[in-house]
Design brief:
Blueprint: E1 2-4, H1 7-17, E2 22-30, E3 38-45, H2 51-54, E4 55-58, H3 68-75, E5 80-83, H4 87-97, E6 104-106, H5 107-113, H6 122-130, H7 150-177, H8 180-190, H9 214-234, H10 238-241, H11 244-253, H12 258-261, H13 274-288, H14 302-305, H15 310-327, H16 331-334, H17 337-344, H18 355-369, E7 373-378, E8 381-386
Parallel strand pairs: 1-4, 2-5, 5-6
Antiparallel strand pairs: 2-3, 3-4, 7-8
Length: 388
């Protein structure tokens, strides 16, 4: 298989790719030692059968290689860019170059729409559709080391060569079922910048706290804000700054000076001095000075915030399962537990009531909530009937 290590060779391949209806794409990366993913390899394959020419590895770590020809191909709307489980790949390209591949096709999303279940893994699709086995023995290797082994190359190229057959099958299935627009609607979320941008001021919302005190949460917010901004600026994992349990300890003890900071049981040694220590002390002071009317409120779960009718929520789960089995579409694409709880609490600003989801589930769900239909079992099926 061919490995591209120069911009000229990549440009030649991408110019050739522009004459084809689609190209399959995958990446290998590392994230254990950085905040942002480090791109280590890009795999590309064209619809042809000559894998010596049609399937290539691109080495972004090669000296002097620019990925701009690839980004130009991503911008070419005449060529479909096919990924499987594209989210992490798209994050890399968006962070690196501010570009999203267009048009985009994600075989994992398409497989869920086509009845392959909630967890449509690549290995499963290759086995069921292409009738091949995927060698995953090199999945957890260090992709930043050079030279790559033959085993790594074989593993990596398989992620795009088999993907061609998976894509061709799913595209035809979507055309047959008339569900291509369903996939397009889902993929719009994947190509929104806000999907990949983590704002430091919102970082505290991901943390679990044991108190609802606004004063405590104000300090948590500022400590989480500083940690996220520091990690982003230095491209290091947030836990390398300080871990969640250390953050909670600091929010409770509220050290006021370096001596107090030194008494922390959970803070890493590196965080007790220098920029991190200064940032911690400053964040605590800012958090403690937040006026009461500006203190954050706890982020509660859906059932805590809503007056959920549990019996209705259970009926909605039955309806969702029945509809998804009948339509052969993954439940997680339609609604999750929080969505069903919201419906059972009287909320109507739920995504399950919009777009294609409304036809599959949302319209009947709303009538069930409004008492206009009831559920009945007819053999192995569950159906709705009008309420007199």
């Amino acid at each position: 298989m061919k490995t591209i290590t120069t911009t000229k060779a990549l440009e030649a391949y991408c110019i050739r790719a522009a004459d084809f209806p689609f190209v399959t794409v995958d990446t290998e990366f590392l994230r254990e030692r950085s905040y942002y993913s480090k791109l280590c390899l890009v795999q590309l394959a064209l619809p042809g059968e000559d894998d010596d020419e049609d399937a290539v590895l691109v080495d972004p770590l090669a000296d002097g290689l620019s990925l701009e020809p690839l980004y130009n191909l991503f911008r070419d709307e005449d060529v479909v860019k096919v990924f499987h489980a594209a989210r992490q790949d798209l994050e890399i390209f968006f962070i690196e170059a501010g570009v999203f591949p267009k048009p985009l096709f994600d075989t994992q999303v398409a497989a869920m729409v086509c009845g392959f279940g909630d967890q449509a893994g690549y290995e499963t699709l290759v086995r069921k559709i292409v009738r091949e086995q995927v060698d995953k023995s090199s999945r957890f290797t260090d992709w930043s080391r050079r030279p790559l082994t033959d085993a790594q190359k074989t593993y990596a190229i398989g992620d795009v060569t088999h993907l061609r057959g998976v894509y061709t099958f799913l595209e035809k299935e979507l055309e047959r079922s008339g569900r291509a627009s369903w996939v397009e609607e889902e993929l719009q979320i994947l190509t929104r910048p806000e999907t990949y941008i983590i704002e430091p001021e919102h970082a505290w919302k991901r943390l679990k706290t044991r108190t609802n005190s606004g004063a405590f949460l104000a300090v948590v917010r500022e400590l989480a804000r500083f940690r996220e901004a520091h990690a982003q600026a230095r491209n290091i994992p947030r836990n390398r700054v300080y871990k969640d349990d250390a953050l909670m300890e600091l929010a409770s003890s509220k050290p006021a000076n370096p001596k107090d900071l030194g008494r922390s049981r959970l803070l890493l040694r590196e965080a007790r001095r220098g920029d991190i220590a200064d940032g911690i002390l400053a964040a605590i002071k800012v958090g403690m000075d937040v006026p009461k009317d500006q203190q954050p409120r706890p982020v509660r779960s859906g059932r805590e915030k809503l007056q959920v009718n549990p019996a209705l929520a259970d009926l909605l789960r039955v309806l969702l399962k029945a509809r998804c089995e009948q339509e052969k579409v993954a439940q997680k694409l339609i609604a999750n537990a929080a969505d069903l709880d919201a419906l059972a609490a009287g909320k109507r600003d739920v995504v399950a009531l919009t777009g294609w989801r409304a036809k599959v589930f949302g319209d009947d769900a709303k009538m069930l909530c409004d008492g206009k239909v009831a559920l009945v079992a007819k053999g192995s099926r569950v159906e709705t009937i009008p309420v007199p």
